[in-house]
Amino acid sequence: MMVMRLVKNKDGIEGEYTMKNKYVVAISFMILAIISLTIHASNSKVGANGFLEEPFFFLVPVSYVLFFSGIGVLLFGFITSKLKKSNR
Description:
Layout lengths: L1 E7 L5 E7 L3 H19 L2 E2 L5 E2 L5 H29 L1
């Protein structure tokens, strides 16, 4: 996702520049993790024989992978932006 901004430079001339939104991927991973956990929790039920039936149990490890991937992308973006600022 690109964000367009209209800016004025030192001479007063208006122009556009684009800025990458670094955190869209991380936030989308975390939102998908929350959605998958919600789907898993809403479809669990106790059967007639007393056993717990969880048809979407596979979403639990998937949500963990998505959540930790989001945290990893977030940390990677944060660390690289700090390194770029310190090199200037």
